[in-house]
Amino acid sequence: MVQFHEHIISDLLEEEPNSKNNGGLVILSSGLALHKLISSLLTLHSSSQGTLLILNSNPSQRSSIIQSLELQNFSNLPLEITSELSQNHRHSLYTSSSAFFITSRILIVDLLNSKVPTSLIAGIIILNAHNLTETCTESFIVRIFRGLNKVAYVRAFSDKPNGMVSGFGKTQRIMKCLFMRKLHLWPRFQVYVSQDLEKDPPVVIDVRVGMSGYMKGIQKAVIEAMDACLKELKKSNKVDVDDLTVENSLFKSFDEIVRRQLDPIWHVLGKKTKQLVMDLKTLRKLLDYLVRYDAVTYLKYLDTLRVSEGVRSIWIFADSSHKIFEFAKKRVYRLVQANGEKLTVPNKSVGNKKKKAKEDNSNEKEETNTTSGVVIEEVLEEAPKWKVLREILEEIEEERQKQAMPQEGKDITDYADDDNGIVLVACKDERSCMQLEDFVTKGARQVMRDEWEKYLRDKTGLHGLQARQGKKPRNPKGVGILDGKVPVMSRENVGASSVSKLEHDALLAAASCIKNLSKDETVAIGDDPQPQGGSKGRGKGKGKGKSKESQGNTKVSPSKEISTRITRKRKSTMSNVDNESGRSESNTVDSEVSREETEKSGTVNKGALRIHEEEVNAAEFAHVKPLPIVHFFALDSDQHILDILKPTRIIVYHPDMTFVREVEVYKAENPLMKLKIYFLFYEDSTEVQKFEASIRRENSAFESLIRQKSLMMFPLDQDGHCVGPTTSIEPQGLTSQNSLTRKAGGRKEAEKVMQVIVDMREFMSSLPNVLHQKGLQIIPVTLDVGDYVLSPLICVERKSISDLFQSFASGRLYTQVETMVRYYRMPVLLIEFSQDKSFSFQSASDIGDDVTPTSIISKLSLLVMHFPRLRLVWSRNLYATAEIFASLKSNQDEPDLEKAMRVGVPSEEGIIADDVRAETYNTSAVEFLRRLPGVTDSNYRALIDGCKSLAELALLPIDKLAELMGGQKAARTLRDFLDAKFPTMP
């Protein structure tokens, strides 16, 4: 355990054990090993204190805490209480004086049912406090728990300080609903934390990799498109312009901030403003994927965006958007003529005189172009970080081999004996880990070839799907594209649309070539001669520059938190990167294209596909440098494997602030370990900007929390009935209004406790919490009909807006309303809106005059027409729903628990109690009647009243049927069906 963890625990344990409201909220910087802090608290917990409950934990946190306890050889590991356990089993666990993980839904139900011995509970630990609200289930639990046990502690923890400052006074509101008064802040710049982490820092090597020219062009175009979208969004005058910066838009929280500001007025916004919000999210992903994925995967993602968002997106029509698609294609392939000449589109603004002069000068050339075909020339640009990663791995292995051999003047004990030979490479996601693993084992060229072939096969599959859907090919079978030949028109006749058509046909022809090549031929043409030498065997158009190291130029690590021992700056080995020259980006890209066109050696033309090949010197691959044992780790997995693998060399392929802090804690716990860290950054990229901005955002969040802590005010005594913003109607006021002082000499009547029977599934929402705040008694049971039972007559089915749309789509709502109408006289459908969103069911532009099957208003109208006794109740928020329930219950009897539980549940004899329809009618016979020809919703009730059974219906004459069914045509249809003879086999 790190020393600052001991300070945090001592601050928590300094509180008086028997005082009221002991406990507090602890907020740490991200990555400071919160799971180890929790595990240390569990080791200090003894069985004599009572049972300890841990709430609001996710699976990754539970596994990390248990893993940390196992490393400490702690035997009494906490178990998880699930809904699969019976109530008696759960009660025995509550009294076992151990630590347990439990969900909030199970605990609140057991508390309301008095199944939890609160006097035996030592305390409650709540994780992920940044996700809590005033109406969450955790605050409901703490309010009930505080009312029954005032000496137990409640401690909340969070390692997301940015989430604690979102919204006005969020931290103070969370502490108030959890009945806490102490706030413990532990930022990275805190004295104890900085001293522990900077006492013996690791060796940090900052490796800056230059991006290729096309990557720079894509990044610049995306930023320009993002800036244009932000300027358009600022014109709406509906968003705080201070937050609308390109730096903030790099983070996922930017989408939440903008959407939170626009939610209250979302229904009055135009389609353009709504689309701008979605476009900013798409552009942020484009910047992230540019430095994370390879060129082929990035192009594939752009193709999906063109299909899915090409019609409605605004950023696609920006001036710089065409550069994104153009440069992304040039990273993968080029469209050239078979003779090697570049296929260009002439400028339409050229005058007729220039055109004629050009025609006179190139008549012979045009004739050859007319007969020549178009081929796809592979480029397959590799990620610049790949080559640098391999060089670092080779360098690490060389250092270890040197350390393994003793040198003169040094004892063998001077070398690190804790080196297990494992190199940890930290990537963003699992896909990047798998691709880098393939790169290390197979080589860069083979990885790019595999991705390229997958891309072409997807193109072929899409073309085949379109053909099966009825699109006829223009050429007969076996001619044209399928043979790997694509005819091309003369250069003067090639326009933008024709080039796109030629490119599409050429891709299909290239896919056909890949499909027809045999496996041996594919290996001979495209595979690496040596898998381990993938970083050396490169295709044309990539260049053959060597790595450059500038020992004099030193840079400080962008984290500014790990002391830098060694700092080096590396340039990319890609020859198309020229960071020192002052040429513009377009000139760099054009020079690449012209250079690639002039290099004809080593290229093989296979029909419509030109595959790059190099003459490889056998002696060059004779000495392949060995690589160490590499373990790839996905940062998105939220696992903690540093203590398990014990690596001494860590390569941070995708820099992440949280992982940097975890490495710092890992080094502080192992001060004798010689740890070396390599940071790989793309120079002058948004990757560096995002990493540095994440640190600044966290520091500003803690500064805001420090200011809030100095101004916080809490009431001296909290009785647990802190009510929400709307408290105009109180339960005690309803009874006092009807009390008469003349009765019993002015003695006040005993207040009646209002009860509400709630389905257990509803505890996933916050409404039971607000009802309890309102003063209503909550009785949790399992209901087959409805969500809330307010009285013997009133049953409520609650639907949020999203749930309402889903219920209509699945048809579940019709069944739910039908059962409520069958068993209750006053069925109510409650449509509840969110507190922070607009109180508008639909935008004004979406409301039409016609009845359409897709309109939600039309569906609601048909539902009410089909069930006339159904009542619709619209609620603004949770607090308005609580007031509506209190008003509905004011003149009603309290619901019967046993009766509510039996509703809709058949007995052993198959009889359902209190079935209103079954008591009056034979339900099965009615359903059979409604399915007969000629019987409709408007005449089946008259048929039921006019005859006593189906047998009597079959004997009624045609005139009587016409009278009951309201028409001769319907009666004739039914009579013909009843009198029809059953067909027999001859």
TrEMBL record:
Stretches with biased composition (Polar residues): 550-565, 573-591
Intracellular or extracellular location(s): Nucleus
Keywords for the protein's UniProt record, in alphabetical order: DNA damage, DNA repair, DNA-binding, Endonuclease, Hydrolase, Nuclease, Nucleus
Keyword DNA damage: yes
GO CC annotation: nucleotide-excision repair factor 1 complex
Major localization listed first in the record, in broad terms: nucleus
Region called Disordered, residue ranges: 346-371, 465-484, 523-608
Domain ERCC4: 755-835
The organism's place on the tree of life at top rank: Eukaryota
UniProt biased composition (Basic and acidic residues): 357-368
Biological processes, Gene Ontology terms: double-strand break repair via homologous recombination; nucleotide-excision repair involved in interstrand cross-link repair; pyrimidine dimer repair by nucleotide-excision repair; resolution of meiotic recombination intermediates; response to oxidative stress; response to radiation
Gene3D superfamilies: 3.40.50.10130, 5' to 3' exonuclease, C-terminal subdomain
InterPro entries, sorted: ERCC4_domain, Restrct_endonuc-II-like, RuvA_2-like, XPF_nuclease
A GO MF term: single-stranded DNA binding
Family indicated by similarity: Belongs to the XPF family.
Annotated protein name in UniProt: ERCC4 domain-containing protein
Source organism of the structure: Papaver somniferum
Source organism phylogeny: Eukaryota, Viridiplantae, Streptophyta, Embryophyta, Tracheophyta
